[in-house]
Amino acid sequence: MLEDLFGSKTRAKLLTLFFNNIDSAFYVRGIARDLKENINSIRREVLNLEKLGIIKSVPLDKIDVPKEELARDKQENRKYYQVNKEYTMFNELHSLIIRSKLLVDKAMLEKLKEMNGIKLLVLSGIFVSDVRARTDILIMGNVDKNKIRRLISGMEKNFSNPIRYSVMTQKEFDYRNQMTDKFLFEIMEGKKHVVVDRRQ
Length: 200
Description:
By secondary structure, the protein is of the alpha+beta class. Helices cover 50% and strands 15% of the residues. The protein has two domains: 2-96, Arc Repressor Mutant, subunit A (Orthogonal Bundle); 105-197. This is HTH arsR-type domain-containing protein.
């Protein structure tokens, strides 16, 4: 989907990498190795994205890396890049990339929805571009936790970071809800997408 929209498979991969890791910085050779793409293609697309203002170069003293690696970075004169959060359409691009992954994972999501025992399924965090959220998926009901874990592990293949998820029984959910539990309150009152709601 993204490569059709942006006209380049390499550019789509780069955008996904940067927007899935908005607080991380990357250098060209490392990106080429991680994405298994030709280094010249990566370099060309990185320069294009920098010119558009979507990503920006970051000084080495702002990079959180081990001292020995930092010394090698200086010796090799590496240039690091990071997504530009001040870019005019940062939020729109971030949301688009997250939603495109949801489309890819639609089949997995359908399996999750149809699992026996699920009474509430809420997408939060990375699925609604809320970096402050403390979980990405909330599941309430009497469910098979091992099956949930396997399904979410399958979804993670299209994500650069692990998907954080929380599973609660009806009893635990109700108790937390009555106690105005901070964790649950933040999810239910914050940005979210309710996929299943079978509460009575």
